[in-house]
Amino acid sequence: MRTRWYISRRDQPSNVPVRSRNTIFLGLLVVVVLASVGLFAADVGSTTPDPVAFDETVPVGLTLEAEYALGDDVALPRAQVFYSQYQYVVGYYGVETFVEDRRGPDHEQRFGHSLAVYVTDYGGTGIELTDEGYPVTDRSPGWIEAEAAWYVVDSDARTPAGDTVVSFADRDEAAAFAQTHGGTLHAWDSLLEVPFESDDASIARERVDDRRDLADERVEAAAGATERPTSVVVGEDADTIQAAIDDAPANTTVVVPEGTYAETIEIDRPITLAGEGNATIRGDGNSTVITVTTDRAAILGLDIEGVGNKTRDAEELPVEMDDEAWDATFTKYYAGTDAGIGAYTAEGLLVEDVRIDTPASGIITYDSTDAVIRNVTVTGTDDPTEGLAGMLLYHSPVVVENSTVLGSRNGIYLYRSPTAVVRSNEIEGNKLGVHVMHTNDALIADNELRGQEHTGIYIMTGPVRNAVVGNTVRDTGYALTTGGSDTYIASNLLTDSDIGLLVGSTASIYEDNVIAGNDLGTEVFSLLPTNRVVGNDFVGNDAHADVRSGPLRVWSDGDTGNYWQGSATVADGDRADLSYAPTDAVDGRLHRTDGAPTLVRAPALRALGGLEGSVPGMRTGSIVDQAPTCEPNNPDLLERTEWADDAWTCYETTRTTP
Asked: How deeply is 641 buried, as exposed, middle or buried, from its count of CB atoms within 10 A (0-12, 13-18, 19+)?
C-alpha cells in the first residue's frame, strides 16, 4: 500500500530545507516520511483521496481582483486535482483551465499524473446565470469525480476570465441547463478533446510591441495639446492663473510667465496651462495644488510646490466613487490624498516638463484613460517611508515615460490600470520603485532603478499578462518581485542587490535576464512549478538560487537552459554534459570554490548528478537545470556589470571573459 501526504494551503510550511547531494548520497537507501499538523494522507494504492475545501488548495485561473469583485452568491465552476508528484492539491477556477494545463508538454513532468480529479456538481443547486453569465446558486455546489460528470460546453456561462464549462452529476440536469442556456453535452473523455482558448505568458510576450505602439499612439494623441493657440497671458490679460483659466476658451493655451504664483487652481475645461521660463505655482501647503476635472487638459513647463499632506473625505473629492466596490476604503484613502496634480476623470491628460516637490504624492490620476506623463520630475521627502507616491495611477491606463521619481514611498504606483505603459524612467531612492497592484496587461520597460529601500519592481495581488522587459535594477533590497500569472520577464539586469529576483508568479516566462552580483540571485516562493525559466545568466551571486518550499522546478526546456557561473563541466556542443542544481549544497558552492571546474568533473559527482537528474523525487524543494549553457546567453547585458570577468566556460579551467 502506497501512502502520499498532501499539504493544505492553509498549512504550507514557511521553509522546506533543500536536499543536497551529500544528504542524498549518505541517505540514498533511506526513505523517511514526515507528517505534521495540517497534513492529510491519501492511500492512493487502494482508495481515492477525498476532496478538500477549495480554500485549502493552491488556486489558479482567476486573479485576486476578479475573485474579490464577485458577489457572495456567485459559485464559479471549479476543479481540484491530486497529483502523483505534487504534495499540494491544485484548485482550478474553471474545468477548462485544468484541461488546457493538462495538455501542456511538460505538465506531467512537473506534476506527475493525476490521481484524482473532482469538479463542481451544480445538480440540485438551482443554478442561474447573472447578466454577466456568472453562475449563482441557492446553495453551495458539492464535488463529483470528473470521470462521472456531464459537462455543458459553449453555454452562456462565464467566469471573469471568459467562457466556462458547467458540470453536473446527472445527465438530465446537464441537458436541461443546455436547453435553457445553450451549449453541448460532453462526457469526460470527449471534454478532454475540446480545445479551449487561453491567454498565457506567450501572449504577454507577443504583445510587447503592441504595448509600445499603443504608448506611441497615446503620446501622439496628447501632443496636440501643445499646439493650442494662446488666448490668455497671466499678468497681462488676467491677474491670477485661476482667473485666466476661467476666461480661456476651450482648446486654447493659458501662458504663465516666469515668476512664483501663490495659488491652488482647478482646470475644468480642455485648455493647456503652459509655463514660460521659471514659472512656479506654490500651493498653500494644505491641499492639492492643481486639480484637473476635464478631458484633454495639458500642464506644461511648470514647477509645483507647497503641496498639502492630508487625506480628504470622499465627499470632498471632485468625483463620485463606488461605495459598494470591494476596494472602496482603500481607493478613497489613497486617491483622496493631496498631490501636486490631482486629475479625476481626465481622459487624454498631458503632463509634460513639470517639476514637483511634495511631502505626499506628486501626481494622482483617477479614472483618467490615456493620460500621458512625460519628462516630469517628482521629488519626495528625505525619508522614503513617508509620503505616498511620486505618481499614483488609479483606474488609469496611462503612459509614464522619460520621467524621474525620487524619494517617495512608492515611485510609480499602478492600481487597476490595465494596458498602462511605464518606460524609460529613472527611479531612485524610493521605498518601492514601480508598484503594480491588480493591474493586468501592463508593460514596464527600459527603466533605470537604483537604491530603492525595499523593492525595485513589485508586481503583486495576482494580476495576469504583465510584461517586464529591459529594465535595470541596482542596489536595492529585492530587485524584482513577481506575482500573478502569465507574466513575461525578459532582458532585465538585476544586480548588486540583496535578492535579485523573487519569483512568486505562476505559468510565466523568464528569459534572457542577467542576475548578477546579488547576495542571493533568485528566491522562489510560488508553489506551482509552472514557470519557464531559460536563457538567463546567473553570475557573481553569493548564492544563485533558493527555494522556500514546494516541488522540484526544472529550469530548462529540452536543450535550452541557463548559464550558471560554476556549472563548468565537459561540453556537449554548446551545453554542459551534466545537469546543474543551484539549490544543491555542492553545486551551489562551485562558483565560489577554487578548482571547481576540476571538482565538478570528479567521477563520483558526475554519477550522482546523473542519478539526481533521473529521479525527480530526490530533488523535491529544489531547482535543476538539465541543459546549462557553456557561456553566458546575454554577454552584452552582462558586460554592463562588474561581474563579466567571473563567467567561466565549459572549455577552460580558469576564469575567463566570455
From this structure: buried
For the segment 524-539, what is each residue's pLDDT rounded down to a tens digit? 999 899 999 999 999 9
Instruction: Dig out the grid coordinates for 148 from the structure.
Output: 462521472
In this structure, are residues 478 and 504 in contact, taking their beta carbons and an 8 Å threshold? no
Residue 361: inside a domain, yes or no?
A: no
**What is the identity of the amino acid at 372?**
V
| Burial class of residue 44, CB neighbours in 10 A (0-12, 13-18, 19+) | middle
Cell numbers 548520497 label which residue?
25
Q: CB of 110 within 8 A of CB of 554?
A: yes
Radius of gyration of the chain (CA): 28
Does some domain include residue 84? yes
- Look up residue 442 and give its three cell numbers: 501592463
Print the domain residue range for 127: 48-198
Span 288-347, pLDDT tens digits: 999 999 999 999 999 999 999 988 776 777 878 888 888 888 888 888 899 999 999 999
> Which grid coordinates are listed for 305?
510646490
Q: CA 178, CA 153: separation in Å to the nearest integer? A: 9
Residue 170 lies in a domain: yes
The residue with cell 525527480 is 616
Residue 134 to residue 471: CA distance in whole angstroms: 39
Domain count, the chain: 1
* Interatomic CA distance for residues 545 and 32, integer angstroms: 25
Nearest in space to 448 (alpha carbons), one of 422, 427, 420? 427
User: Domain for residue 110, yes or no?
Assistant: yes
